[in-house]
Fold:
Amino acid sequence: MQLPRLVRQLLHRRIVMVSAIVLLAIVVLALGAPWFASFDPNDTAVLDRLKAPSAAHLMGTDELGRDLYARIVYGARYSLAIAALTALGSVVAGTILGLVAGFFRRLDTPLMRLVDAMMSFPDILLAIALVAILGPSLLNVVLALVLVYTPRVARVVRASTLVVRELLFVEAVRALGVRTSRILWRHILPNLMSPILVQVSFIFAYAILAEAGLSFLGVGVPPEIPTWGTMVAGSQQYASQAIGVVLFPGLAIILTALSLQLLGDGVRDLLDPKLKKTLS
Amino acid sequence: MSDLSRLVVQGLSTSFPTEDGLVRSVADVSFEVAAGKTTALVGESGSGKSVTSLTLMRLLPKTANAQVSGAAAFGTRDGRRVDLLQLTDDAIRQLRGNELAMIFQEPMTSLNPVFTVGEQIAESVRLHKKLDRAAALAHAKRMLDLVEIPAAAQRLHEYPHQLSGGMRQRVMIALAMACDPTLLIADEPTTALDVTIQAQILVLMRRLQAETGMSILFITHNLGVVAHHADDVAVMYAGRVVERAQVRPLFATPQHPYTQGLLACLPGKAHAAGQERPRRLFAIRGQVSSPLAPPPGCAFEPRCDQAVAACTQAMPPLVTIAESRQARCVLRSAA
Structure:
């Protein structure tokens, strides 16, 4: 299916259209942060602490008098970057793992038992343990989340590989003298793009939530970096004085994660031929 | 071995270890494919036809742990004789798609759904002839023209799901023919197609054979197709060749009881012979014995109406009964 047609069909559903617009807006805000925010996210003004939303401070200020709106806009950069890197990393690692496990039958059992072992840990506990070992930093959070989400992708990709490898065209290209490595990358991988695409959007959403959760628990991104998670974590004790300090970053998290999930649902519905008929 | 044979298979056996014991899917199979001619391998489902072709192409999955013995001497384009079963993985891969090509039963699933047909044909050409992308695509268009696909230039950029079954089988043939192979293995190429398309595909294959001089190993269970398109025939039953002959003598005077039975099963046969029209169609009684527990003697003995005591003693050898005629039956003695 051609990409433009796919995108058009995807946006045909109103809820998916709205999610896409919200996400686009958030990405534009994050990329153009200096133009959209008039304050520096780390400028403190003790006299203006815990202010309610006003014309000067659209969302009010936090316990150090930092502009919440600026922090959310700049925080979007970090939150989105962490989620994007996590999605990219786990999809690349999971795809390689799943493809190899699904295609080479001898490697299937050892690789998948490893994946099972990793999946048997609760997500957030595994991530906490990993960050505790690696030490809190932006990169380590990404690394921990990649390790947490790689097994999910690996399972999905392996299952799809098992289906595709049995199709006759694989034998047909082998009969044409195509090398095994080329069969894997050129012929099988492109047939797995739809399940992989769906995983990307879901893991993106999970990663936003997981980063917020880790930061909230104090094992995530160092508190001086403004992510939506560190903002909620740092200001929670002041919530009774100015609800905005947790409300606005919380809303940003919900809005982004929800939009991503809805978009992911849309992509899945569109690419799953069994669901497609009931939709149209 | 004559210089005119493209492929000489001698004593080919393929066995698979299973939990219930060793299964001999192909046992002591010998046949020849002459240069520029068609040899048909005929047999019912499970008689070992497809395993034979996959063994020759070395396409059996490694995890099947197949045990293969025998020899398959293939005459390459540059005049060497190589044993397909002994070649290294790399050497056989270079022959595949280049000198040895194969087309499959299911045109619906034999093409990769995410690439255009042009890209798929071009891939093979780029691989074996080292052409660049533009030249390979131009070659792909010529191949589509060759297999008589209308509006080839446009079809080149279409995906498999946009083509009909007959069209896809033409694309598969174009794909197989792209590097001008000397031996084409066709594993029931027309089984999944309806009868009119079947006829078109067979005529096309014959035309291509006449133009290029390639040899064809035609695997089928359709005796009508064999009668029209084969030069030599090997009839297989339970993994063994039971009769080998040129096509005319085989149909005129079948020697093995199994071949006789098969021909008697054809609806038009008895009628055409001037006999009274039978009220019921003839059927060979019983069913194929399990490969795990083959009968001690001739594999066909339990179903054979002409069986004698000697049939249960040992598997009869394939004996030559006339020039280029062989049968595996105790009732036929060597000429």
The interface with chain A takes residues 57, 59, 63, 93-98, 101-102, 104, 106, 109-115, 123-124, 127-128, 172, 175-176 of chain B (CB under 8 Å).
